[in-house]
Design a protein that fits this description.
single chain; alpha/beta; Rossmann fold; six-stranded parallel beta sheet; disordered N terminus; hexosyltransferase activity; transferase
Length: about 180
């Protein structure tokens, strides 16, 4: 890429996180040609994958032909900076990852790990998707979700007010409520 083109280049990074688990199905889905094409069609330029304990290694790609760049790592002490710099987050259905992303006001696609036995995570993801705070997918439907997603349809997440609970606990424990 020449310097003039590089100056006009505006990156749109997709950050993918699987947390501390192994979620190879998500990493494979993101690494698929279908998902990469849909992300390119939506204007995304870079994919960074936090792959956790997984054994599937995505293909690293550097930009030479105008395609997406793809990079990955296993773990980081904190993913906060990656979340902040991303234009789109694709995440496993862990509540920490979900709420951290929603608090940042970032567009989010939650992909449910169907291999988990007690899949309470899917209930949380489905409920938040129903309220239009995020998009919900399974590994095999991720490319369809990206293709159909309309970021303008998302409703910002507003955390609840904890004060009524605090007041109730203070009364229960006999502390002053003022």
């Amino acid at each position: 890429m020449d310097e003039a083109a590089n100056e006009n280049y505006s990156s749109k990074m997709v950050f993918v996180t699987v947390g501390t688990t192994c979620f190879d199905a998500l990493v494979k889905a993101v690494d698929s040609q279908q998902v990469k094409e849909e992300l390119t069609n939506k204007g995304y330029t870079d994919i960074l994958i936090q792959m956790g304990r997984g054994s599937y290694v995505p293909s690293k790609v550097t930009r030479e032909d105008g395609s997406l760049t793809v990079d990955y790592f296993t773990f980081s002490p904190s993913i906060a900076d990656y979340l902040k710099s991303a234009s789109l987050i694709i995440s496993h259905a862990g509540s920490g990852s979900i709420f951290e992303t929603l608090r940042l006001g970032k567009p989010l696609i939650v992909v449910v790990n169907e291999d988990l036995m007690d899949n309470h995570q899917s209930e949380l993801a489905e409920e938040l998707a129903e309220r239009k705070h995020l998009f919900y997918a399974r590994p095999q439907t991720l490319h369809h979700t990206i293709q159909a997603m309309d970021l303008e349809s998302l409703v910002p997440y507003t955390p609840g007010n904890p004060m009524p609970v605090v007041t109730l606990m203070n009364r229960f424990l006999g502390f002053p409520t003022e």
